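Glutamate racemase (Prochlorococcus marinus), 267 aa
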Amino acid sequence: MKLRLGIFDSGIGGFTVLKSIQERHSSFRSIYLADTQRVPFGTKQPSEIRQIALEISKWLCRQNINAVVVACNTTNSVALDVVKNNVEVPVFDLIGSTSELIHESRIGILATPSTVASKAYSKEILSSKPFSFVLEEGCPEFVPMIERGQINSSEVRGAIVNHLEPLIKENVEAIVLGCSHFPLLKPIFKELMPSNIRLIDPSLNLAKKLDTLITPSVNEVDLARKPIDIHFCVTSDPSQFSDKASHWLGIRPEVEVISLRSHSCVF
């Protein structure tokens, strides 16, 4: 029996995490939950993010999963403890997967305002590399633009240039894409940023950490032939989500609408 992963995000950002996992592993099943009714998470107050994390965790507990993948950096930065305290399976996160990918001493972080305010990336990086310089830049516009499909618009390009500027001025050597939505803009980032700055996607190391549960595929044939065994759930707009999955994942799945709202409170 294949292991079943519970993957969650506010929307389609988790597709980047799912794809990283699929590129390394062929033998797993998954349930993917997008809380599309409340996207984006990154501009919400910590108390609301923690409440959402509680509701998602309780729902995932009922889905017969073997591990949880927190494919949302904002939840990761503000409410990882909520998830870990409310599920009884291993939890894999993005921020905790970052340090091993960094070899540079001057690092920029692009993330949502809530993630930046938490300083979670700075704390994680400095805990293992205490002499590093870390500059975090909040980007509130990216997630809404990506969810609306404004991937190559002049507005997106202008926002990217504006948010790259302070990092480039500080001579960063690497930039971490600290929101799972942001790798969807990776080609534009690479086009607009200096070629000597390395772009880091934490999902690559998260996928590697899953080796403790899932044996990685040893050849490209395994990966090419793997069946897609993913059940998609959303809290609103299933047809729109299916369209986005078709664009980003190359599949048009049936999407189940579920309710997360509960009267439970997180403390």
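The radius of gyration is 18 Å. The chain has a mean pLDDT of 93. ok done for today
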